[in-house]
Amino acid sequence: MSRIAGRNHLYVPGPTNTPERILRAMVVPQEDHRSPKFPELALSVLTDLKKVFKTTEGTIFTFPASGTGMWEAALTNTLSPGDKILCSRFGQFSHLWADMAQRMGFEVQVLDCEWGTGVPYDQYEEILRADKEHKIKAVLACQNETATGVTSDIGRVRKAINNANHPALLMVDTVSSLVSIDFRMDEWGVDCAVSGSQKGFMLPAGMGILGVSPKALKAMETATSRRCYFDLGDMLKNNATGYFPYTPSIPMLYGMRESLNTIFEEGLENIFARHNYLASGVRAAVQEGWKLNLCAKAPEWYSDTVSAILVPEGFDATKVISNAYAKYNLSLGAGLSKVAGKVFRIGHLGDLNALSLMSAIAGAEMSMLDNGINVTPGSGVAAASTYWRTHAPQAK
Amino acid sequence: MSRIAGRNHLYVPGPTNTPERILRAMVVPQEDHRSPKFPELALSVLTDLKKVFKTTEGTIFTFPASGTGMWEAALTNTLSPGDKILCSRFGQFSHLWADMAQRMGFEVQVLDCEWGTGVPYDQYEEILRADKEHKIKAVLACQNETATGVTSDIGRVRKAINNANHPALLMVDTVSSLVSIDFRMDEWGVDCAVSGSQKGFMLPAGMGILGVSPKALKAMETATSRRCYFDLGDMLKNNATGYFPYTPSIPMLYGMRESLNTIFEEGLENIFARHNYLASGVRAAVQEGWKLNLCAKAPEWYSDTVSAILVPEGFDATKVISNAYAKYNLSLGAGLSKVAGKVFRIGHLGDLNALSLMSAIAGAEMSMLDNGINVTPGSGVAAASTYWRTHAPQAK
Amino acid sequence: MSRIAGRNHLYVPGPTNTPERILRAMVVPQEDHRSPKFPELALSVLTDLKKVFKTTEGTIFTFPASGTGMWEAALTNTLSPGDKILCSRFGQFSHLWADMAQRMGFEVQVLDCEWGTGVPYDQYEEILRADKEHKIKAVLACQNETATGVTSDIGRVRKAINNANHPALLMVDTVSSLVSIDFRMDEWGVDCAVSGSQKGFMLPAGMGILGVSPKALKAMETATSRRCYFDLGDMLKNNATGYFPYTPSIPMLYGMRESLNTIFEEGLENIFARHNYLASGVRAAVQEGWKLNLCAKAPEWYSDTVSAILVPEGFDATKVISNAYAKYNLSLGAGLSKVAGKVFRIGHLGDLNALSLMSAIAGAEMSMLDNGINVTPGSGVAAASTYWRTHAPQAK
Amino acid sequence: MSRIAGRNHLYVPGPTNTPERILRAMVVPQEDHRSPKFPELALSVLTDLKKVFKTTEGTIFTFPASGTGMWEAALTNTLSPGDKILCSRFGQFSHLWADMAQRMGFEVQVLDCEWGTGVPYDQYEEILRADKEHKIKAVLACQNETATGVTSDIGRVRKAINNANHPALLMVDTVSSLVSIDFRMDEWGVDCAVSGSQKGFMLPAGMGILGVSPKALKAMETATSRRCYFDLGDMLKNNATGYFPYTPSIPMLYGMRESLNTIFEEGLENIFARHNYLASGVRAAVQEGWKLNLCAKAPEWYSDTVSAILVPEGFDATKVISNAYAKYNLSLGAGLSKVAGKVFRIGHLGDLNALSLMSAIAGAEMSMLDNGINVTPGSGVAAASTYWRTHAPQAK
């Protein structure tokens, strides 16, 4: 395929743009993962990841795998075949996790919610209260549903469980939220926090990251699900001295080390504030500029990492996306499953600033105009620009 | 840790040295793995990998995982809980695969062989002949046992199965042999060929590669082992159009593309010949120069990718290795499990030439001398040099 | 200095953005520049550079130097102390070349023109006609004055010389025009064409490039200016077999090889068309959107590689630039010398597309608004977007 | 040209092997060299380079140029046409500098010395004593003659000048010695110290580095040699605030920053000790192992950065080199000019350790044997190995 001049403008909600300094840190020769020097790197990464999950009690695991693998690791290491799981479905990724749980042999109670909303906190509480025999062993929650741009409040999920005084494990998908939206593993009592390298960590895909609470580690002892590659026991034993049970990716470890350096330099809270600030500008472009709607039904659900934008009735969002790619070298996220053709998505997470997003806003607008969608030229940029000029990121 | 001047000399049998051009090919910005352009890359990799496995009938799968994950994928996609497996154990890696099979719930018959020998072809045939009811569903074989430097003849394993007229699937671990030692998936009727990126492919670890025969794909339809992350069905469906069910590592795909380019430029048969030529020189250093023994018991078992060298009685191979690392920045492979302390290993696979190995030979010799082992200074290099100067790589 | 999240948006008119593939091509180990293999690279670069200069008769030289060094090489290799030179000054770079000529001991006639205009073709002709004794040995012309965003027509300079029937050498500064704006060394009878790596070639600075006509090479034989590092004779002798008189930069050579590959893939004429297309959009933003003026006085002078934009009376362009850098991580070009504080510059050359420039336009607008300059929010992007959506690049 | 498997073994005395971390540091996007942030980098490099030259009084300049350019800069910035220069010639590089001085219009007194010896200290003193009128304005000395592997004692050159009580400037070529062999700009009263990036700094070629004493800066005020690109005045003015008069190479600046980090981490004195230690092992291989002679006539001249090795009468060193390259992918330095065909050179400077050099020693030996030169197989490695095993680097 012939070269298109200029850079690709990447605004899918993952993989995100890898900063040059992280890209650079990954250009390393291979090295012996059994050397006396190796644990220095491995342990520093495993230890510092705790800060990102906001846990001191938990243990962090990394696997050569995608985030999907961590969904599986969370389930098989803590549960036994036939165990009951409570979860909710309101987008493609909450759907896929529920689906996996069924395929892995668990009994899954799925609450179907309207796409554009998130975890049904009250319904969770109700069901857990009703589960007097504590048959439900795990509660699943997707902190950020990437397909619809919906963020749920994990603190409220914890409260629902606590209100029901229920011992179920709380498992949270943080793939498209960690390091971008506040996540508090210890405070919220999260037992398994599933994540991956290619979103907030700004790395290529390929490192699955899993935060595990002491309670979940204890559950592991009696969990009889078959597992080997994703077995936390093997990992725990080897990690203790700074090694891995099988060959890790050397570039990914160095990349993660540099990602963590980057994160700590900016500061986690500053990063969250920046994501909120950038997301607010994008939402201003969509709502005040273009007069369009988000897929997320209400402000409480708005995601600071991705916005799913509904095109007006009668238009095909798929064409907006394909035209943007072919004509402007702009990669937007597609609508998936139920919202296919209805939304296009702008990922606004990772290593971005306001002017980066201007390309996405201007390009999306141009592609909508090319497709006959009636938005005012320049309106998106004007609204975002006004927001960004008159506000500043606010760390909480 | 302070800098040691000069490069690390990496001669563990994996990860192997990544050539500059492959390292370079991996320095890529992230990109949308759902873009219209993406399949071009993905399909070219999946298709060209077939040539490396010497298969036209088989299907190649790649996963964000290490080779260990592919062991699991091979087993769980084709077998059902309780299925009987025949395998042999003569080193740490053949041991680990057998161990995994047990943990994943299969009934495993393990033939323990002397470390330094390989697959017991005749015993396999005998057992398979005796299995009139065809309870054995899979036969496992490790083409190259990395721990002892032993290569088995997979063609003879196939012959044993055929002689017994047995329908079991043949599963082969090619992790430390593929692209270095001849492997013929179709000709030898291999049903699952397990491999990884960090040996003959000269890439970092992180891409698991699995070759699957039509027969194994058919077995998948009835195999009831729980699987999701490693499910070949999901992969097959997505791969059909050049996509993956979850986010792949963009750098690893570009790296594999460049690895394949490199391989085809040199030519598979030339690569095998080069590995044999280089290994022969290393063996000359060990046997003719140093007057030491290989762990491999007889020439028929000699591996062209790694040599495990027995230190004389009364000496500790571990000290040879740690001293080589600390004093000469040389990474040698350690003895594992049964041969811990008894052998050190020189990996001679991947992107190497004769002079590269001279560093390993000279360094191992220096470290042996430092440890009081009585070898003649310069003898290893002299023997290797004589071999290499008077022979040329012979492609078959 | 602490990290600013997201990329720097680089729109100075050089160094320009280096495409990833060129950056990647430069990650090379050092190599022996006297090896038998080296000439393959060197000769391919020197030969292919001719296509970029549109010369078959000329010779291309490369030096480890910036473009400034090539100004000196052009002068000292072809002229003798006291030789008379005709040139014009209408911006910082035409000024610096004239200044160098004086410092190097030549007798320089400088025609001062209004900044915002270019080479005074008729005045050149007049002066050359008057120079009956042909005391003027060289005529200098700056094809693209980077400081003011003014492009002169080198074909008309040639015509002026021809009309005067004058034998003077024609020396052209193409630093910020080559590979972006059409240049025809042979057709226009250019004797010395001065260029550098960090603009249209999209490389880092550090390689000076000089195109030399047979006539200029002949002049070299009698030119008595002192020179050694920049001596074309030494270079010519070594280049003949593919070598250099002193150690060249290996990464820059590989980078230039990849730059040329990139250029030929897109096609020189397509590149010129793209630059015109992109520049037209930027000018639409300035003139139709913001209602501001360019420094360039008339369309005939408009540069397709850089636009110098006049801020309204009473405002300080320097503050627009420093605020853009500090607040939006946007690098704009400053006004130099006579236009300092009066203009800011947007470089629109090299590896760019429309959406890249949207960041520059949106950012410049935001910074003007922050400084109290009364432009309509979104107006620049709207005008550029309309231009780009309704036009296509036109290769001539 | 088809790929040769494995790395090239680079042992020419420059460019030297660039460590991965420096290579990595150079993979940077371009940036505005006029930005407010830029001086941070530029000033840190210019300041820290002083430590490497061991000067507090001097000023360091860097140019986009090779070391050859710095020869010219030293001469033209401090001398006037016709000024008298005293120098000595005992190899290709001392020859070239003398030749340049003549071509640039100075009156050069060249003392021809036997190749294999170095600066004739006593003769220098004698001539300077005799120059009662102080017509000699500059004394040139090549600290390390790369062509013959000869190091001269610059302290003794200073003593010769002082003994003669002569005011001439002392100019020293440190291209292949700086950062590898002790150099003391202030203590030895060196007025111009010429260097380049591609030897001890372990960078690609392309950055010329020049140390200038206050006395030489004063001489600049009256020196009338024509200069512009290499004018120190322009540079001084711009450097004062952390900028450059023309576009510098961004990657080279970041590379130099990382080179300096590397140097300070290991420690200058430790680096000198390591170079002496490594050189001693190579000399043991040559003299004790192979029973061959160095081009350097006596131990006082032995260079710690490069050894020129004389092949026995009747053999052609050129063939040893070309065969080593073609057959073993080993790059050795060729004999130049008077010693062409008589010597091959092993560069042992930069980022090297003992095992790196084992490849060079083993490869040179193999190539000599291939060419019929009667050396004992393994003898070079044995001698070097014994030296290295029984000695340790000694920082003075």
Automatic annotation (TrEMBL), chains A, B, C, D:
<keyword id="KW-0032">Aminotransferase</keyword>
<dbReference type="InterPro" id="IPR000192">
    <property type="entry name" value="Aminotrans_V_dom"/>
</dbReference>
<dbReference type="InterPro" id="IPR020578">
    <property type="entry name" value="Aminotrans_V_PyrdxlP_BS"/>
</dbReference>
<dbReference type="InterPro" id="IPR015421">
    <property type="entry name" value="PyrdxlP-dep_Trfase_major"/>
</dbReference>
<dbReference type="InterPro" id="IPR015422">
    <property type="entry name" value="PyrdxlP-dep_Trfase_small"/>
</dbReference>
<keyword id="KW-0808">Transferase</keyword>
<dbReference type="InterPro" id="IPR024169">
    <property type="entry name" value="SP_NH2Trfase/AEP_transaminase"/>
</dbReference>
<keyword id="KW-0663">Pyridoxal phosphate</keyword>
<feature type="domain" description="Aminotransferase class V">
    <location>
        <begin position="56"/>
        <end position="294"/>
    </location>
</feature>
<dbReference type="GO" id="GO:0008453">
    <property type="term" value="F:alanine-glyoxylate transaminase activity"/>
</dbReference>
<protein>
    <submittedName>
        <fullName>Serine-glyoxylate aminotransferase</fullName>
    </submittedName>
</protein>
<dbReference type="GO" id="GO:0004760">
    <property type="term" value="F:L-serine-pyruvate transaminase activity"/>
</dbReference>
<comment type="similarity">
    <text>Belongs to the class-V pyridoxal-phosphate-dependent aminotransferase family.</text>
</comment>
<feature type="modified residue" description="N6-(pyridoxal phosphate)lysine">
    <location>
        <position position="199"/>
    </location>
</feature>
<dbReference type="Pfam" id="PF00266">
    <property type="entry name" value="Aminotran_5"/>
</dbReference>
<feature type="binding site">
    <location>
        <position position="345"/>
    </location>
    <ligand>
        <name>substrate</name>
    </ligand>
</feature>
<dbReference type="GO" id="GO:0019265">
    <property type="term" value="P:glycine biosynthetic process, by transamination of glyoxylate"/>
</dbReference>
<dbReference type="InterPro" id="IPR015424">
    <property type="entry name" value="PyrdxlP-dep_Trfase"/>
</dbReference>
